[in-house]
């Protein structure tokens, strides 16, 4: 965060992002830190770290902390930062926010994941600080997107993202307990695991065929049934926070979506204030907010979120409000047919 605030912008007609980056070795010690424009105006923080400060170091297995998603597009002969990270064999990357530039948003994170890099994200309080510091940069791209998009654009139909096969996942990643609960809800007595189960799951779009013809979970199957979906798709993690008496209580959810409801309700029932109401002759405990409303908002965010983007869903309980943040924008409207 300190490096981010040192960033230097190279353009006059638009606001460049403030970006800070820190590389940590396998022993947990900081190798170097850099910011945008650190040694030369226009140079990205990741480039400065990897190619200037640490060009003679072996970065195999290192961890990168960077406040903005690594870029995937640079004017030749420059190389995108996401490619530099992969080329340096950096093992894990913590990302602050996704790039608001629609040409990059989520693609840097996807590139890293597809090339075997573990991706995780900053905590919500740091995300807010990064967004506040980069407000002009974010507003610039939001305004640009509004200018270039129109309501007359045709709606191309629902996304097929959830049906994509996750090549790096396997059927062994699916939780037998989660699958059994799903089958129980459908009153289906198929054995877990079994060939009949995989046929059912393939028809439902929860598993599919890899390029080599093997069965593997789809994005939907991973989110719903994987024992640790966030280890496969880090954006599956749901960040839950409660701010109370000047402190923050975290309760992140990382399991299969089928278990999310119970986790959400337990966390918020423990953290919400409770009030006593007298109804006729009975004293009744009433929660600060109705769980039905919180559950509906949170599940809408998780189910309808943009899984191309790398950020997490955030659910935050604060004094006087509950905030639910879901990555991705609204769908374009269908053109009017009169």
SSE map:
Elements: E1 20-24, E2 30-35, H1 45-53, E3 63-68, H2 81-87, E4 92-97, H3 107-114, E5 118-121, H4 124-133, H5 135-148, H6 176-185, H7 195-204, E6 207-209, E7 215-217, H8 219-225, H9 229-232, E8 238-244, E9 247-250, H10 260-271, E10 274-279, E11 282-287, H11 291-304, E12 313-318, E13 321-325
Parallel strand pairs: 3-4, 4-5, 8-12
Antiparallel strand pairs: 1-2, 1-3, 6-7, 8-9, 10-11, 12-13
Summarize the structure.
The protein contains eleven helices and 13 strands. By secondary structure, it is of the alpha/beta class. Residues 149-153 and 333-338 have low confidence and may be disordered.
Report on this model:
With 338 residues, the chain is α/β, with parallel strands linked by helices. The protein is built from 11 helices and 13 strands. Helix 2 runs parallel beside helix 3. The radius of gyration is 22 Å and the shape is globular.
């Amino acid at each position: 965060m300190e490096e981010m605030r040192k960033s230097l912008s190279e353009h006059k007609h638009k606001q460049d992002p403030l970006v800070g980056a820190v590389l940590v070795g396998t022993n947990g010690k900081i190798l170097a830190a850099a910011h945008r424009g650190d040694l030369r105006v226009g140079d990205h923080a990741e480039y400065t770290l990897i190619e200037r400060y640490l060009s003679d170091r072996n970065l195999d297995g290192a961890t990168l902390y960077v406040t903005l998603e690594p870029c995937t597009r640079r004017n030749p002969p420059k190389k995108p930062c996401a490619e530099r990270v992969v080329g340096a064999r950096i093992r894990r990357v913590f990302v602050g926010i996704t790039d608001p530039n629609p040409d990059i948003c989520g693609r840097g994170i996807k590139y890293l994941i597809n090339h075997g890099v573990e991706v995780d994200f900053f905590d919500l309080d740091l995300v807010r600080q990064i967004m506040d510091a980069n407000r002009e940069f974010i507003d610039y791209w939001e305004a640009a997107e509004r200018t270039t998009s129109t309501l007359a654009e045709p709606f191309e139909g629902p996304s097929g993202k959830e049906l994509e096969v996750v090549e790096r996942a396997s059927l062994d990643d699916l939780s037998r307990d989660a699958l059994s609960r799903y089958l129980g809800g459908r009153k289906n007595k198929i054995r877990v695991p079994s060939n009949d189960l995989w046929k059912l799951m393939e028809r439902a779009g929860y598993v599919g065929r890899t390029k080599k013809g093997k069965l593997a979970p789809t994005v939907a199957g991973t989110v719903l049934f994987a024992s640790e979906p966030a280890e496969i798709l880090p954006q599956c993690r749901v960040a839950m926070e409660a701010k109370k008496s000047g402190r923050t209580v975290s309760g992140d959810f990382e399991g299969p979506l089928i278990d999310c409801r119970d986790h959400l309700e337990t966390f918020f029932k423990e953290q919400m204030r409770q009030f006593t109401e007298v109804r006729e002759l009975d004293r009744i405990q009433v929660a600060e907010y109705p769980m039905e409303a919180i559950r509906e908002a949170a599940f809408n965010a998780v189910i309808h979120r943009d899984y191309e983007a790398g950020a997490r869903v955030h659910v935050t309980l604060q004094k006087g409000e509950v905030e639910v943040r879901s990555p991705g924008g609204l769908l374009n409207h269908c053109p009017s047919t009169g």
